[in-house]
Amino acid sequence: MATLVPPRSAKRQRLANAAADKAAAAMADAGQLGPAAETLVVQLRSAGADGVPLGPAISLPAATGQRELEMLVNQLRRQARAERRPRSGDADEDDDDADEDLPFAFHVALPEAPGAAATSAANMRLQISKSIADDVLNAAAAKRLGLSSEDTLSIVFEPQAVFRVRPVTRCTSTLSGHASPILCSSSSPTGTLLATGAGDKTARIWDVESEMPLHTLAGHRGWVLCAEWEGRERRLATGDMEGDVWVWDALDSSEGKTGRRAWGVKSAKTIDEERAAATATQDAADGAEATPAKTKMTVAEKRAARHAAPQGKVLKGHTKWITSLSWEPIHSNAAAPRLASSSKDGTVKVWNVSTRLCEFTLGGHSASVNVVRWGGEGAIYTASSDRTVKVWDAASGKLIRTLNEHAHWVNTLALSTDFVLRTGPFDHHGKLAKPAPGAPDAATDADGAAKASALARYRAATAGQRFEQAISGSDDHTLFLWAPQISGDVSLGAAGGATPKKSLARLTGHQKTVNHVCFSPDGRLVASAGFDNAVKLWDARTGRFIATLRGHVANVYRVDWSADSRLLVSASKDSTVKLWDLRTFKLRIDLPGHSDEVYCVSFAADKVVSGGRDKTLKIWRN
């Protein structure tokens, strides 16, 4: 379980109660609701301009928090749906899915003060997380509400996921092609493509929609250990056992093409243009008098040129194998994002992909750097076998802070914004998300539009005091949840009694090495996988232990969340992939089929893709 703050002494509790009683009496004399109010009348309303009320006004304890409000809203929704069915005479096709609890956020809208300057909608809200008393009645801005003890408090709820990923139930494709175990996989930002790396010194790109192989990327001199897509899906980076980083460009990324359209075959027009450019270059090299014969390409040659795999360029500099890769976020640099690579040699290099030069090297670690993550606030996070997590300035490469509470190697590191940074400007449909109308960052060119869309998605993901946080897992069987390092002036850490260099919580419960950890896309939960055959769930805000998901009988290597944060999938040494029910915290669907260990698993849109030691890639769908 998470580390708990020791309870107050009897004297301190008595003094705190006296101070609370005094504050409540003062507010009562003023005719306003106070923190000691036992109950208050609440009206739940849906988000939007209409604000449709959900059920009648009800009396709730002032200590009611976000979790209790969420349970209440889901129960009222089920009751309203049950009342509609007899009248309509039609049963819902997806009753089981409709009855699932949805995640909601709650806030109280503040009235706009007369004569005040225009304020953004986010600043006109009081978000409810801990309790109504703490977040609304005790807030400094609550004075503007002017509530009396007889007034009805209007609480607005809004869903945190506007779409649903249906649970996978069957294997629809088993794809072969790799000649050695599949060691890593990475889903593209749109979810239409998948990249895999294997021990046969090749990387492959697969079309998830058609469930067919697309390209084989050859050039590596050693095992391909990691792969990472650029946020706009124009490039793919892979790292190998020899310390080389390869960057592969899409065959056609013009006019905003993504997915298979950009990585598929070349058009005949493109082939002719490339051949004309090559001929002109040769003429210039041979001199003006040279007149090479303009032979026409045969049908076989043109077909081979159209279906040729993307050409890669190698970045050399590391002396040992590559452990992790991370691209600069699109909302920071949409035109030419940089690439960070970590290595067993104890360094992290930041590359300018256009010039193929290393801009700077982060050399503060004294052992292997196992993970690198490029954050959305201008910082680079690294985790190392020297038992530390370091935070670096992405612009200058200077060390900002060292976090050194772990007692053994740090194996895994995740950011609460990983999902929105990985998907960049694309929404859950795989299309370019549109920024709000009139947004100041909107632009007409492709780079500007992508940057504006990515920035809008990032701001939405970090709104409401949800600052970017990091969590790390180690060989010491623990995880540490760290305070925000850049944004919010680490106010969350100060409120929780922590500093930027001190963790918010120490998460204990795993009995062996913590191998992998990741935040849910909505940033509310954390899932960790360990060599103790267990997957554990934690509260992402407080580090509180929630549940242990047991079902695997061997080491759990990877976990991954669906885009709606309602499904969790895990891959294990026991040769199975498992899908978990997050309502009951029990196994929902067991997905056997692999004949050996499963090293990697990931959600690609509404499908699950897994690969491992049996050299095959399996695609699972509903």
From TrEMBL:
InterPro entries: WD40/YVTN_repeat-like_dom_sf, WD40_PAC1, WD40_repeat_CS, WD40_repeat_dom_sf, WD40_rpt. WD repeats lie at residues 175-216, 217-258, 315-355, 362-402, 507-548, 549-584, 591-622. Residues 80-90 have a biased composition (Basic and acidic residues). Keywords: Nucleus, Repeat, WD repeat. This is Putative RSA4-WD-repeat protein. The lineage of its organism: Eukaryota, Fungi, Dikarya, Basidiomycota, Ustilaginomycotina. GO terms for cellular component: nucleolus. It is found in: Nucleus, Nucleolus. Residues 76-99, 276-295 are annotated as: Disordered.
